Amino acid sequence: MYSELVYPHPFSRELFRRLNQFLAMPTINETEWPFGSLSSGELATNVREDEDAFYVEMEVPGIKPEEIDLSIIGTELQVKITRSPAKESKNGRYLRRERVFGNTVRTITLPIDSAPKEMDATIDSGILCVRLRKPEEAKVQKITVNPK
Hints:
CATH architecture: Sandwich
Strand content: 25-35%
Number of strands: 7
Strand order of the largest sheet: 1-2-7-6
Shape: elongated
CATH topology: Immunoglobulin-like
Structural class: mainly beta
Distance between the termini: 74 Å
């Protein structure tokens, strides 16, 4: 049925695709999402943990290390990216312009009560990797059960 649709404008197919993509997004309240806001979908992010640290892996293709500002505010990691605009071309005109420029901020709330003590970050092949060591009180404490 969709193959029979006639799109009156060359960008109509793309607009319908984006509308369908938007409507298919899950509706999650930001306060219910444990790792912060989903509003900046352009920075796809994975957050994982092990016994000693949290790891934040974020897609930042084409971003240089000097364009990234990382901050810890309490138990939140704030990633601010500043994209410089590309040089305008004097020849021709744009038919599509999707690349965004300016500032993008992503805040990730960590599920701990106190700020991490040690942090480091690397960027490789467009993936920003941030390691946040857990404070001692956030680590799992083992309790030994002794016979009576």
